[in-house]
Design goal:
Number of domains: 1
Distance between the termini: 22 Å
Radius of gyration: 22 Å
Low-confidence stretches: 1-47
Helix content: 10-25%
CATH class: Mainly Beta
Strand content: over 45%
Largest sheet: 16 strands, antiparallel, barrel
CATH topology: Porin
Number of strands: 20
Strand order of the largest sheet: 3-4-5-8-9-10-11-12-13-14-15-16-17-18-19-20
Shape: globular
Number of helices: 4
Length: 403
């Protein structure tokens, strides 16, 4: 695979220059701060030297007694995957396979002045399905500044931030791609997952509730901050623990912009309810979502149980998803079905439908917890509508790593 750095040189130079300056500052402060602690998280099991290194290598500096800079960390993730799809759509039968670098990201976080945290993470993947041109700077995945206020007015762990965020709406989207249990999230999730959004996000805890509220611009930007020249998107989330091993989470998102000015949602409003539980040796996630798309509605449910066949090593995962719309609003995931359709015959596409069932069964083998794992899976899918009569099977294989 050929590796080449391309893209916006000035932004890339500013980013690397800023990182160099920050590391130089941290080194200077380290020299004045006395004893410095650089260590791996103590709650992680010792699974081998390379694994411990993978988990701790990103912590460049840590000293809680330093009044200026308390921690400097670098982090990244590399996700590679391959898929084979066999498709039948009316009288059109075809199959194909392809691979891609699904995610390639690098970031930096700095805790400073005892209450502030700055986080920036950039996308570096280039190419896409069956395309390995190398890597380049592809804009910020997230970029925000957060103030951790502590306890305020009866609320605990209050934080206030502003920047470019991933909005965690829905059960699957709430789980980072570093730790998702299926190679791809469900179609239902992808319909409602917002694009990266610019705005303010407040988090707090009170009386056993985890609370989040955000206000974002309805405008989008591929690389950094969006402007506020249009409408607003309002997001609220409440998580309540139902005992030691159960929780329920409600998410609501609302868009007050006109259809032409809405660039991060694609719908008027949506609500999601998620139940998470540990039942014996089984982890269970159940998520129901309803969304108002303007003239049409989309709703459905995702049920995902998982269990370890070999403790901390081999995990079995099953997912069932049903999604329904009142007007052919549901499409299969672009990875892998739509990519195969377009690459096998240029111009071939898969129309939207109104009734979608998917069944996923997979195995995850943990080389080093979620920091390094191999994933395989098989997914069967049907999609019915006025212009589609789809039946497809996809086989998945993936390697996921982060530090």
């Amino acid at each position: 695979m050929q590796l080449a750095v391309r893209g916006n040189g000035s932004i890339f130079q500013k980013m690397t220059g800023g990182l160099s300056s920050l590391l130089f500052m941290g080194a200077a402060i380290t020299g004045q701060a006395g004893e410095v602690e650089i260590s791996a998280p103590v709650d992680e099991p010792n699974t081998g030297d390379w694994c411990d290194t993978l988990k701790s290598i990103g912590t460049l500096y840590k000293d809680k007694s330093n009044p200026w800079i308390q921690e400097v960390k670098v982090f990244g993730r590399a996700h590679y995957q391959w898929g084979y799809s066999d498709v039948s759509n009316f009288n059109d039968d075809y199959s194909g396979n392809g691979d891609e670098i699904r995610r390639l990201r690098a970031g930096l976080s700095v805790k400073f002045l005892n209450h502030f945290k700055a986080v920036g993470r950039v996308n570096l993947e280039e190419g896409g399905f069956r395309n390995h041109e190398g890597f380049s700077y592809g804009g910020f995945d997230e970029l925000y500044l957060q103030y951790e206020a502590g306890d305020v007015a009866g609320f605990e762990d209050v934080s206030i931030g502003y920047g470019r965020y991933k909005i965690a709406f829905g059960g699957e989207e709430h789980q980072s791609s570093k730790k998702i249990k299926t190679v791809e999230r469900s179609n239902l999730n992808n319909i409602f997952a917002p694009s990266r959004a610019t705005g303010a996000l407040i988090k707090a805890k009170r009386g056993g509730l985890d609370l989040a509220f955000g206000v974002f611009s309805s405008r989008s930007s591929d690389q950094d901050f969006a402007d506020w020249t249009s409408g607003h998107v309002y997001f609220a989330s409440v998580t309540h623990a139902l005992g030691e091993d159960q929780s329920i989470r409600a998410d609501v998102i609302f868009n007050d912009s006109t259809q032409g000015d809405d660039e991060i949602l694609g719908y008027d409003w949506a609500a999601s309810l998620t139940y998470d539980a540990e039942i014996g040796d089984v982890d269970l996630m159940v998520n129901a979502t309803f969304g108002d798309m303007g003239d049409e509605n989309v709703y459905g449910i995702v049920i995902m149980p998982s269990t370890f066949l070999i403790e901390d090593r081999l995990e079995a995962v099953f997912r069932y998803q049903w999604a329904h719309s009142s007007g052919d609003m549901i499409r299969p995931n672009s990875r892998n079905l739509r990519n195969v359709a377009g690459h096998e015959t240029p111009g071939r596409g898969i129309a939207g439908g109104d009734d979608n069932h998917t069944f996923y069964a997979g195995l995850n083998y943990f080389l080093c917890d979620h920091n390094a794992k191999v994933m395989v899976g098989a997914e069967y899918e049907t999609l019915d509508g006025d212009r589609v009569d789809l039946e497809a099977t996809t086989l998945w294989a993936a390697f996921r790593m982060y530090f």
